[in-house]
Amino acid sequence: MTSSVISFSKREIHEEIPGMQNAIYRIEPCVSFAEPSILYIEDSFHYKPDIDGNQDRVLVQSAEIAKSIAHMHTTSQIISKPGQCPAVFAIENEKITADELFKKYKPLVDQHLRNQRTWYEALVRLADDDWQQVRKHRMISDIQRTAARELSLEREWLSAVLDEEKNACPFCGTDLLSVDAPICPNCGKVHNPIKLAELEASINKVIAKPMAVK
Questions:
Q1: pTM of the full predicted structure?
Q2: Domain boundaries, the chain
Q3: CA distance 176 to 186
């Protein structure tokens, strides 16, 4: 029996069910709300040891796998909860097409899209709060930027590549005093060894240079 996992997410989905014959499941990003990504799931199996030490083959139906994939993805996302989560869900025991999905399950699709919109709105509110507190673009996640774009919102924090991120210490995240600083002034770790070697060589030259005799 075949089941279907439906995704209206704009991001690629990777989920893994350890122990299964087919353990890794990948769903392409959704192109548009009219063209959801659909992953077809077949029955699979895993092995379970019995009391004699033998390995029993245990059948797992496609419906259970499809529900697990959707559940793992939606519950693992930031601030996701029932009624506020990505539009990723299972259609059990049915190999469905996009046209059939909208004809047979339109109320279900609409509900999941409302849940996803609510989730997007919550992600943007969280990003707005973080931005007001620290005003650091690196504190905003890609999914929050995706949410703002999907809601057609303009935000100061939408840009992903900024000079301030280039100035941040890769170890502790603290902004450096200068992009040329070889050592982080906060954690003391070397993040630019080439610049440090140049600086040390320059200092050694000054120390080694003989003083002029008057």
A1: 0.71
A2: 2-115, 169-214
A3: 8
